[in-house]
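Record pair follows.
FIRST:
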Amino acid sequence: YHRRDQEVKKDLEWIYGLFPILRERMHQVAGTMSGGEQQMLAFGRALMSRPKLLLLDEPSLGLAPLVVRDIYEVIKKIREAGITIFLVEQNVNMAMHVADYMYVMEAGQLKMEGVPQEVMRDEDIKRAYLGG
């Protein structure tokens, strides 16, 4: 996929606004970046195609807690920009803060679904996924 339109520069500036570190690393080989920086780069590349739907599979996996917090702040901004996000995430605590609707799966089976506030009221869910 290759874009040539005039909006590329504008979109790139938006990405740099979401991930300022990418501007600093623009000439760095991706394989030499930290895990968090590589995750940010993957987000940026996906967003440059102006998706209507963005599938995020375990965006917090293997990242330091501070980086996870930053990634979820960006997920909120992407959502606010009107991009639909389909999020697959084991970090339920973070996911519930950006979700409009949740599906809880266990061993390939749907265990529960609903708005986050409803799902998190379930005692079994709290115990299993939030340690409560």
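SECOND:
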Amino acid sequence: MPKLGVAALMSWSWDRFMIDPTPGPRVRGDFDRLGDRGGVAQILETSALRIGRSTLPRLAGRLGHPLLLLEADGGATGLAELIERAVAAFDADEVVVVDVGGDILGEGHEANLRTPLADSLALAAAVQSGVPTRVLVAGIGMDGELSSPELEVRLDQLHARPVAELTPKDVEPFNDIWSWHPSEANALLAAAAGGWQGAVETQRNALLELTAAAAIVYEIDARTLTESSLAAPLVGTTSLEQAEQLLRERRDGRSELDIERRRAAGEHAEVRMPTLDTLDVIDRYVDEAATRGVDALTVRRTAEMVSAIEPSATEALRELLGRHRPDNFRPPLYLVHGENGEGV
């Protein structure tokens, strides 16, 4: 892993519907018991959303660095000011924007690009802040948003440089996080860095080939990327609504927030609490998946498949699988053949 000299980490509180049904990113006013670092909200282990759940407080106790809250309500301009305050508070000399999957490389026309707003806004703000900025991208293709050909073209256009390859040593301290954390792209990156390879079925029934290449970390010039990506129109924005509208105009009227709003209004699949009968459904599915050459499902895909798509249902499913299918349940993966190489 590149030697980054990390002083603090900044993150959105933007858990999707499976964890937090409120649309869009959260801001400090949504939390209780935050810390303050020079005008920047710090997520503590004791912090909590007033309504809904956030994965950040639990992460805060595991990361080894202060965890600060990115806030989108002021657009790129407000976020740039937050970044400047954080840099001053921690006496930092640069900002490193990290993306897992590669959707930050999108130009807006890609058919499967679903969630560009968070990455694009963070990049626009970092560049707008004037603080020296680097961009690192890992787990190429693991978010299932840009196709392999699209990613290859963009990496070439942007003169991306491989700067490191993640190893089991890099990810081992965090392996137990995947027993509860829902992030799929980050989890697949960790699996690849840990040495696992194979065909993985992910959410929305997508199929990804997990190889050693997923563990490669690329560095891309921040300004070049900004000028040729969806970050460009967001520079200078002063609200989340303005940023969303600008991306909507660039993406034929599409907005990831619209999907979240519809789900919050009740337009989503029925949630089912898992039972022992759920195991039979999963067993039959993985038997069929094996005939298609699938080696594993993500835990998130497994939950989606049996409609355990709400926090308590997902937790119950994880507990059920851990108790009754321990050879298969290896978070973040549910192995089709189990660790002993046999079917369920």
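COMMENT: The two ends are 37 Å apart (CA to CA).
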